[in-house]
Specification:
Blueprint lengths: L2 H16 L6 E2 L5 E3 L8 E7 L10 H6 L9 H4 L10 E3 L5 E3 L5 E3 L6 E2 L2 E2 L5 E7 L8 H17 L8 E3 H4 L13 H13 L2
Parallel strand pairs: 1-5, 3-9, 3-10, 4-9
Antiparallel strand pairs: 2-6, 4-5, 7-8
Helix pairs in contact: 1-4, 4-6
């Protein structure tokens, strides 16, 4: 086993034990709860978010997930006053990762949802937000970071297969559209395959 293989194995062991993604900046959200007894992680859900809509780079997403958003700062923010949501992690436009909830816990990201006949996807999924919108291309750095996160989750919880990495729009059709047509699933899966080859 090479040094990189050993490092990856240690990272996966730590992820299983703590739910914390290596190299992610920790910004704990209060918006989470325990997974139901017997609910094993078996799905990864890709989302997008931008606050204000279509604007990138500010602190507002993090403030929103941590219930610290100043709702008077932008007219749109009044429409989400009182909303308490989270994701396990956010991938910024530059590929940096911010984690809000341990993967061992149930983040509030999917809402009413169903995957292959099983409802309440929050119970058994990991939710990853991409800073973006449905119709603005995502960055190469985001695809690489998402592939790295997905590969670690898949290694830590083998029930998350490539076929069980899906979009919010696929588990809540008609209610949600993200990550939208701007997300290139073929490109992501190609990068994910290359990421797996490096292990």
């Amino acid at each position: 086993m090479s040094q990189s293989d050993n490092e990856f194995a240690r990272s996966i062991q730590s992820l299983r034990e703590t739910g914390r993604l290596p190299k992610a900046r920790w910004s704990p959200s209060p918006n989470f709860g325990p997974r139901p007894e017997g609910a094993a992680i078996s799905l990864l859900v890709v989302h997008n978010i931008s606050l204000p809509p279509g604007q990138f780079g500010g602190p507002e997403i993090e403030e929103f997930f941590c219930n610290r958003l100043d709702h008077s700062a932008h007219p749109y923010f009044e429409t989400i006053r009182g909303v308490e949501v989270s994701a396990h992690a956010l991938i910024r436009r530059d590929g940096s990762v911010v984690q809000f909830v341990s993967l061992l816990e149930r983040a509030w990201h999917a809402g009413r949802s169903c995957f292959e006949g099983k409802e309440e996807c929050n119970d058994f999924s990991v939710g990853i937000e991409l800073e973006g919108t449905d119709d603005i291309p995502y960055t190469p750095e985001q695809y690489r970071a998402l592939a790295q996160v997905a590969r670690m989750v898949m290694a830590a919880w083998p029930s998350v297969t490539e076929e069980r990495v899906t979009g919010h729009c696929d588990i809540a059709p008609g209610r949600k559209t993200d990550p939208g047509p701007a997300f290139d699933w073929a490109e992501f899966r190609a990068i994910l395959a290359r990421t797996g080859d490096k292990e």
